[in-house]
Amino acid sequence: MRQYLYRLFIELTNKKWSSRLLSQYTASPLSKPMIRPFMKAFQINEQEMAHPVEKYKTLHDFFIRVLASDARIVEGGPGRVISPVDARLAEAGEIKENCQMLIKGKLYSLSEMLGSREKAAGYEGGTFLVFYLSPGHYHRIHSPVDGMVMERWVLGKHSYPVNDYGLKYGKAPLSKNYRDITELQAENKKVAVVKVGAMFVNSVTRTHTKARWKQGEEVAYFNFGSTVVLLFECGAFQIDEQLTIPGEVKVGQKIGMLT
């Protein structure tokens, strides 16, 4: 019953019209009085921000805020993989046979997420990591590795939430939501960065169009809390044993090594 009610609520509220209304409100000066209560509700550290809170004219401006240059340390280097986002590392595991991932007790199809069996086949036996961004997290996405861009593509059009409840009760949000996917080659290893939109139909904005990604540099941002999935081909990645899963991670934090 809980699963049915959750899905019914989402179907009623997360359509194009509701997403559009929310988008219009957060981008309006009418939303500015909500910034301080929003900061308090999500315990956002003002000292980390690049600009004083008074500078933000709308809630959307605040959503996509930039951090001070010294707010995060990039623990990068040869072979290292860093967290691309401030987030809750919700899940990590092996990509099973038939390219399936077990997340929150449910099997997710990597073929559906990436749009084809051919795309997914290269990651079978590899590793996946799921990073969930709440509305209060820093919303900008950074490159986890140094790598050359092999391909970029976009899939999906829905706007279901991609949080713990969404992953547990939703209808495959990682496979149906708007996805902006970048496939990289890093130290001769294949790495996919899947940016999964939520709430807004297209809630991912690219800020990087170069052929090479430099570890730690900004590549995109979310217009609302959402999810990033990292995919590594078989034998390409060893997760850091000190990570707590589920647990909080920060941009630039070392999460593992390319092997």
From TrEMBL:
Pathway: Lipid metabolism; Phospholipid metabolism; phosphatidylethanolamine biosynthesis. Keywords: Decarboxylase, Lipid biosynthesis, Lipid metabolism, Lyase, Phospholipid biosynthesis, Phospholipid metabolism, Pyruvate, Zymogen. The keyword Lipid biosynthesis applies. The keyword Transmembrane helix does not apply. GO terms for molecular function: phosphatidylserine decarboxylase activity. It holds the Pfam family PS_Dcarbxylase. Signal peptide: none annotated. One of its GO terms (biological process) is phosphatidylethanolamine biosynthetic process. It comes from the Bacteria. InterPro entries: PS_Dcarbxylase, PSD-B. Its cofactor is pyruvate. Its EC number is 4.1.1.65. This is phosphatidylserine decarboxylase.
